[in-house]
Amino acid sequence: MTEAESTETLIVGGGIAGCAAALAAVREDAEVTLATKARRPEDASTWWAQGGIAISRDDPAQFKQDIVDASAGTADPEAADVLVENANEAVRDVLVETLSVPFDVADSDGEDFDFGKEAAHEEDRILHVDASTGSYVLERFLSFVDDHPDIQVLDDTAALDLITHEGEVRGAYLESGGEVWPTFAGATVLATGGVGDLYPDSTNPAGSTGDGIAMAALAGADIDDMEFVQFHPTAHVDDSGTLLISEAVRGEGATLRNAYGERFMPAYDDEAELAPRDVVARAVKNEREVSGEVFLDVSDIDFEERFPDLVEQCEQRGIDWESGIPVRPAQHFLCGGVSVDEWGRTSLDRLYAVGECAHTGVHGANRLASTSLLEGLVWGLRAGEDAPGRDPAPMDVPDLDDRDPALPDSFAREKFTRLRRVMGEYVGIERDPDELERALGVLRRLKGEVDAYVRTRTSRSLYELRNASVVALLIARAAAANDESVGTHNLVSDDETTTDDEATVETP
Questions:
Q1: What pTM was estimated for this model as a whole?
Q2: Rounded to the nearest 10 degrees, what angle do helices 77-90 and 60-70 cross at?
């Protein structure tokens, strides 16, 4: 194992939440190390955020109400207050004045922003850059942290495990290029993103294996609301991967039609295409099962003028968008995660969590559109402000064991295939209680297999598999324990389900 290092503030993750924490920490004169698995901006979830970032404008009360309504009344009102009361200032300070993000404007003078509207928002409040807001934000944020003299950026660097001592976190084991070393920190901030690798289709980038949640859970941190996995209703999936079709397209007036050409959303909800995401996702799933396909009809909007980035991506994939874009639901966001307070502090001393891996309580059972970047920004700034001021506390730590021969590259791929099949079939948009129990049995066995290998081997792919198996179990357990359908957790019963399905998911 490589020689140990120390830093005042260790941040794990390089999306908007991690970068915001780094910005706030150096404003407090802290020494910061930011470790990210990403080798390029596209490897971070922030890059893929299309729609934009919501702000309160002049009506925080309505913004809060929209958050609560979209969550089916389950959002934590105090957490929602933190978000909406800090939204305008955080965006103005960081994104507009510090990073100069070129948000779209509504007039030639460039004085008024072009605010968009998305599902479940009562007013136009979404700042955006075409349909590529996340990439514009992240490019500027990464340039800022790369150029800052007090921030050491370690790319292509993964955190494998937290270093703990008597209920506090002292840092983490980091890995890059096969080398592993302990980094001790006065405070550690987890900003590791989502869990897309657990599902067959996801809008997340590769490598979204729930690392921060798994490491925190294994260290003893409180974890909440893991059953609430949000699926985006309009994703196009083909051999090239998953293309997210922004919520903003429906906000402009695009409609959803089944294979018979029928517009179906008004029959499901009074808000039609602008109903909360969980409602639209279930409707799209149902219509695909009944008719065979669902299309996003953009013929009534100026798609080329309003969304040139999406037009380009459709054309690159050979999608005839003028005839309708074939769409299906894809895993998009985890509303649960590591439990934190209003400053991002977890139940373990010296450990913070921000962004998608954190559970602030803002989203409840379903997230309101275009609040993920905002939550990462607001809680990232707050955690970065609160975390500094403590010296690292080095200690004697054991080497991570690596005494057995490396596993073949196919090992992790085969196990991930099995895990994704279980999660996609049994722990997806709709869940049957009996099937959840069946999934738990398969996932327990899978985790047991992986744990046996982790005890004697150390590699990034193996630890990512361990993390994914831990988080999959957390999601399935929470889903099985919650007997109330609410938001993204929707229970159904299928009397015809047989145990033959278990044999299917057991085969890699």
A1: 0.94
A2: 130
Phi and psi at 38, nearest 5°, equal: -65, 140
- Give the bridge partners for 244, in sequence order: 235
**CA-CA distance, 465 to 457, in Å (whole number)?**
13
Contact 364/73 with Cβ under 8 angstroms?
yes
What residues does 151 pair with on adjacent strands?
32
Tokens 């309160």 locate to 56
Q: Catalytic pick from 277, 306, 420, 460?
A: 277
Residue 162 burial by CB count (10 A; 0-12/13-18/19+): exposed, middle or buried?
Answer: buried
Structure-token match 């009562």, residue found:
122
For residues 64-87, one letter each, b for 16 or more C-beta atoms within 10 angstroms of the residue's C-beta and e for the rest, the string is bebbbbbbbebbbeebbbbbbebb
Average pLDDT value for the chain: 92
Kindly report which listed range (220-234, 235-249, 490-504) carries the lowest average pLDDT score.
490-504
Nearest 10 degrees: CA dihedral of 145, 5, 207, 400?
180
Question: Known catalytic residue: 277?
Answer: yes
Alpha-carbon dihedral sign for residues 11, 13, 14, 17:
negative
Model confidence over 328-373: pLDDT tens digits?
999 999 999 999 999 999 999 999 999 999 999 999 999 999 999 9
What are 357's two structure tokens?
A: 């891996």
CA 350/CA 301 separation, integer angstroms:
50
pLDDT of 131 reads 74
Chain segment 173-210, per-residue pLDDT in tens: 999 999 999 999 999 999 999 999 999 999 998 899 99
Task: Name the nearest CA neighbour of 141 among 104, 98, 205.
Answer: 98
Residue-wise pLDDT tens digits, 297-313: 999 999 999 999 899 99
First and final CA of the chain: distance in angstroms? 33
| DSSP 8-class letter at 271 | T
Burial of 100 (0-12, 13-18, 19+ CB in 10 A): exposed
**Residue 185: strand, helix, or coil:** strand
Instruction: Tell me which residue of 433, 443, 449 sits closest to 471, measured CA to CA.
Output: 443
Contact 215, 161 (CB under 8 A): yes
CA angle 229, 234, 240 (to 5 degrees): 95
Question: From the centroid of its chain, how far is CA 313?
Answer: 22
Place of tokens 């037009």: 311
CB 82 within 8 A of CB 378: yes
